[in-house]
Amino acid sequence: MKIFVARLPGTPVFDPAGDQIGRVRDVVVGLRIGRPPNVHGFVVEVQPRRPVFLPITRVRRIEAGAVVFTGRLNMRRFEQRATETLVVGEMLDLTVHLGEQPMTVYDVAMEEIKPFAWEITKVAVYRGRRREPRTVDWGEVSGFDKLQQDQGAAGLITAFESLRAADMASALHDLPTKRRVEIARALNDTRLADVLEELPPDDQIAILGTLEPERAADVLEEMGPDDAADLLHDLPEEQAAQLLALMEPGEAAPVRRLLTYPETSAGGLMTSEPVILPPNATVAEALAHIRQNDLTPAVAAQVYVTRPPTETPTGTYLGVSHFQRLLREPPSTLLGGVLDPSIGPIKPELTLSEVTYYLANYNLVAAPVVDELGRLVGAVTVDDVLDHMLPEDWREGRRP
Description:
Elements: E1 2-4, E2 12-14, E3 20-32, E4 35-46, E5 50-55, E6 59-63, E7 66-69, E8 84-86, H1 87-91, E9 95-98, E10 101-114, E11 117-127, E12 132-137, E13 141-142, H2 154-160, H3 165-173, H4 177-186, H5 189-196, H6 201-210, H7 213-222, H8 225-234, H9 237-246, H10 249-259, H11 266-269, E14 276-277, H12 283-290, E15 302-306, E16 317-322, H13 323-328, H14 352-361, E17 366-370, E18 376-381, H15 382-389
Helix pairs in contact: 3-5, 5-7, 7-9, 8-10, 14-15
Organism: Nonomuraea insulae
Protein name: Magnesium transporter MgtE N-terminal domain-containing protein
Keywords: CBS domain
């Protein structure tokens, strides 16, 4: 049975009891002179975003949509050895030679040659812009042992395209710096922005520093204003000012406002783009807004009602309507008549601990932030709070 490796990332991994314990991130192999690489095992991502190693000798079945193993899984964080190669992370997009012809690798196939022993037996390659695909034996190609300065990233991005941004960020974090830069440069602005939001600050800064300033500014424009502000807070002052100046004025304005608040105050934590509607909007309109795919669950959990304008800073803040209440009301009901009078707004200067107490005390997933003029300037969500309460290295999957 042959299995093409580029199809494996994201595949659920199940233990002997049938419980899912994680997802495949990559395949670990050992290169050998004159022989096909032998498969050592899988890199599996378990919660909380920790890559661990699953030896191939523990794998009992690999089938459509599932990898099943036996025995116990060592939960120690995976560390790649100098003699090991990651198939998805390091082999895909390599330029190899089929005879005298340069070819690009877009997949490889692993095959069980005897019980619990697997080798990389086939290489899927293409040539030139026409991408004429071919699948050949491992021994027919050469060049896997050579480090390339400009490897490209199309194959790896294709392998990871079905992953959520957080999962792709985890995979990106553990790749060699060279591959991380190649992939970041190859991603479109929107996808790169989504992935950057899920990376630790050090990775964000390093990746942003490899981009041309104009491209970096474009990526910042695609990020949520609160995430962009957090990243700019961590950059040197001159670099942050340069990127803000390169951003479109309309995109930079909310980020500039967020940067005026202390980073761990309600104003520094908040998103400036919650769902905001006027009081004469209907419940049907509100439900249509919170159905948008790009909203996080916390942001979509409530609609804020203000006088025009309805972009922050808004007109006078009137109140909030929770999505559960919206679901119980006739679609034609006006929002001004379904406000929750029990929830008051908070001030931008509230500290992180005060915001945390407020959300916990009222069992909320978000809270409106209103300035001294009575205008809604944003909303603090529970995920904003958690980002700042967890240890700095939580995105790296390390337990406190």
